[in-house]
Write a structure and sequence with these properties.
4-stranded antiparallel beta sheet, 3 domains, Butyryl-Coa Dehydrogenase, subunit A, domain 1, Butyryl-CoA Dehydrogenase, subunit A, domain 2, Butyryl-CoA Dehydrogenase, subunit A, domain 3, single chain, 4-stranded mixed beta sheet
């Protein structure tokens, strides 16, 4: 595995960074943050115009794009879930669905949110109780989903529903692509600790055609597994890099002629530890990219990347908050706060990352069972 960037890759990284510096002004960042939505139509259209939405590039350059978007805290979560579901449809959808959905999704013309978790199931997705009952050429859906992030602005939801209640829980599930404009759907906001809006969605006698089904009836767990493989291989290192950047700026600042915080041995020690864990996080994620490019499935390696990078982010955020002290608690975008309140925001944000895309406990279980071969 060789992760050293060549000249073309480095030039591409700089191109992406220049575009993000141009469009993600402080005013735009604050507007997006205060909306609570991890999506912005104008920003997404700008990526499409620059061929940065779904670029036809090699695996490492695509990874560099993701790293720069994450480092800039760009509003791309809905775009990412849309591309993820488009990839699932390519593999498991009908030809009609491939023709209708995939091109529009890859051009940013439609958006797709995720409907997996339920209020009473938590991380046990297979325990879903939302039902889909066959009625002629249609399905009638009843139930609710929790954490349907961007469900209030998306066009579709990638929905997991139980179609055979009499079968074992992993065997009676089916995946659907449900239009969120369909009658009978209600979306209510849920605000997270980091200020992000997610949603709880309710489905009351929602009718969809059988052409909305993805994969075979009762084979939804296998279809969902395609999506979860991508989610579990996520890496959060760029957020550590952003935090480290602001921490270093704070540590170099000189006030009232006193020595900067960087002169303190403990400050340097903590920053060095964060830098080391950033390097590990980056390498774990790029290993996943390399494996996928080689035709290998990062079954355990993906969860390793997600687990380590999110917990390293929490450790880093706590470390920096301790260093900065009470001033670090001043709010995000507060003009008098150190680094415009980045420390306070990243502290709140970091805690949720150990839950997104599968909790740390779920990731450890996958690593133990599927990576190390340990018993349940």
């Amino acid at each position: 595995m060789e992760f050293q960037l060549d000249n073309d890759a480095e030039a591409f990284r700089l191109e992406v960074r220049a575009h993000l510096d141009d469009v993600l002004t402080p005013e735009v960042e604050e507007r997006i943050y205060r909306s609570g939505a991890a999506h912005d139509d104008e920003f997404a259209r700008g990526l499409v115009a620059k061929d940065l939405f779904a670029p036809n590039r090699n695996a490492m350059e695509v990874q560099l794009l993701k790293e720069e978007l994450m480092y800039a805290e760009a509003p791309v979560y809905l775009s990412e879930t849309t591309r993820m579901v488009a990839s699932v449809i390519r593999q498991a959808g009908t030809q009609q669905m491939k023709d209708r959905i995939v091109p529009a999704a890859m051009k940013g013309e439609i958006t797709i949110a995720l409907g997996f978790t339920e209020p009473d199931c938590g991380s046990d997705l297979a325990a879903a109780t939302t039902k889909a009952v066959r009625s002629g050429e249609e399905w009638v859906i009843n139930g609710s989903k929790m954490f349907t992030t961007n469900g209030h602005i998306a066009d579709y939801v990638f929905l997991l529903a139980r179609t055979s209640p009499d079968k074992p829980k992993h065997k009676g599930l089916t995946m659907f692509l449900v239009p969120l404009a369909a009658p009978g759907i209600e979306v209510q906001p849920v605000w997270t600790l980091s200020g992000e809006r997610t949603n709880i969605t309710f489905y009351s006698d929602v009718r969809v055609g059988d052409d909305c089904r993805i994969g075979e009836i009762d084979e939804g767990w296998a279809v969902l597994g395609i999506a979860l493989q991508d989610e579990h291989a996520s890496g959060w290192g760029p957020h550590i890099a952003r935090l480290l950047h602001h921490a270093e700026q704070w540590a170099r600042a000189v006030e009232d002629g006193e020595a900067p915080p960087l002169a303190d041995t403990d400050v340097r020690r903590r920053l060095s530890r964060i830098a080391i864990e950033l390097e590990v996080s980056t390498l774990l994620q790029r290993r996943c990219v390399w494996m996928a490019d080689q035709g290998q499935v990062p079954v355990a390696e993906g969860p390793m990347s997600k687990l380590f990078s999110t917990e390293a982010l929490v450790r880093a955020a706590q470390d920096i908050m301790e260093l900065v002290g009470p001033d670090g608690l001043r709010s995000y975008f507060e003009p008098t706060a150190p680094e415009s309140g980045r420390f306070e925001h990243l502290m709140r944000f970091s805690l949720g990352t150990t839950i997104y895309a599968g909790t740390s406990e779920v990731q450890r279980t996958i690593i133990a069972q599927r990576g190390l071969g340990l018993p349940r």
